Amino acid sequence: MTDPTGETSRNLQRLTAGDRSALAELFREFRPTLRRLVELRLVGPLTRRVDPSDVLQETYLDASQKLTAYLSHPRVSLFVWLRGLTLDRLAKVQRRHVGTKGRAVSCELRLPEASSLSLGRNLLAAGPTPSRIVEQDELRRQVTGALQQLGDRDREVLVMRHFEGMTNVQVAEALGLSDSAASMRYGRALKRLKEILTARLDHGESTA
Question: What is the CATH number of domain 113-202?
Answer without folding.
Answer: 1.10.10.10
